[in-house]
Amino acid sequence: TIVLSDKINNLSESATIKMAKLGRELTAKGVNVISLSFGEPDFPTPNHIKEAAKKAMDDNYTYYSPVPGYPDLRKAIVNKLKEENNLDYDISQIVVSTGAKQSLANVIMCLINPGDEVIIPTPYWVSYSEMVKLADGESVFIDATIESDFKISAAELEAAITPKTKLFMFSSPCNPTGSMYSKDELESLAKVFEKYPNIYILSDEIYEHINFTGKHESIAQFDSIKDRVIVVNGFSKAYAMTGWRVGYLAANAAIAAATDKLQGQITSGTCSIAQRAALAAYEGGLESVLLMRDAFLKRRGIVYNLLKDIPGVKTNLPEGAFYFFPDISSFFGKKTETGEVIKDSADMVLYLLNTGHVATVGGDSFGNNDCIRFSYAASEENLIEALKRIKNALAKLQ
Ligand code: PLP
């Protein structure tokens, strides 16, 4: 037998990837499965971005790039942060990586020593706590429920802080809940951080453009803490570029330099062609982004109305991203037609997959066992059918 490292043995398998796999297995058996488990826009990458990639190959952008990214792409990111977010950064503060996921992992690896505490509000994106584990840090969770629209208060934040707290990490708009912190809410959190100058704030803003309230608010806008905020963003969700693998961070130059050093040892610069495509995305304006956002907004409305109509399901109205995170705990303790008891969210998603033929993800892997997550990055037709199947499957539970 192969002896693997404790690190890898202690790591959980990504729940979203696992559910997608189970869905595909059922599909391979001839079952018509509607997969709502993955967090991926269903739109193709806009044409002008694809064309830039083709041109990049013809122009021989086929060599190693500088580790933190091509200077013109980093400059375009500086311009974007200024124009769209009114945030001032220098190019030395920007590091481009192989997806926002790598940017997040880079920051955690660069800041966390064994035993350092990382505060994570739940529900949170599945990979956060696993990245903290890899760095031998300790995740400290603050449980937010549907009653507070899955957001934490300044008082809850302050109560979770200890002398070991090194980092706070969160996403707004949030995966899995779609919740967004308002400017006032962010300011009240920032006021807490003002009192604790040794805590860093990792702000995952990958869903920035899938925002139904209008303006994106970043916690980096508060000057008193900006130097300790690491903004992570990327191209996957806004520009339908999940497979291209381009993300970035904007941070204090010393943190940026540390992630550059780390990346230089493990991956080098991200794909040269993908970087040229990302540059075209930022130079091409927001037209395609807004079209996709509008499509998500329409789908959100369709799904919200259908979901509200299912007895026993509680839902919030997500303000961003493309997920619903309904509370289905009223079904716990009920039995399926074959007599199995639904005990938790993991049982529920298997039941919905096997009986309803809809793939979703259990809330347990996002730190909330009362809920399930499903994506509405799917066609309207599939969404309507999926919600019908979920409603019928739930009605069969006794
Ligand atoms: N952060 C959140 C909250 C996400 O949901 C995702 C992707 O699902 C990422 C980061 C990673 O994005 P990327 O594709 O840029 O690595």
Automatic annotation (TrEMBL):
The keyword Transferase applies. GO terms for molecular function: pyridoxal phosphate binding; transaminase activity. Its cofactor is pyridoxal 5'-phosphate. Its EC number is 2.6.1.-. It is an enzyme of class 2 (transferase). Residues 32-390 form the Aminotransferase class I/classII large domain. The keyword Transferase applies. Pfam families: Aminotran_1_2. InterPro entries: Aminotransferase_I/II_large, AspAT/PAT-like, NHTrfase_class1_PyrdxlP-BS, PyrdxlP-dep_Trfase, PyrdxlP-dep_Trfase_major, PyrdxlP-dep_Trfase_small. GO terms for biological process: amino acid metabolic process. CDD domains: AAT_like. Keywords: Aminotransferase, Pyridoxal phosphate, Transferase. Belongs to the class-I pyridoxal-phosphate-dependent aminotransferase family. This is Aminotransferase. It comes from Albibacterium bauzanense.
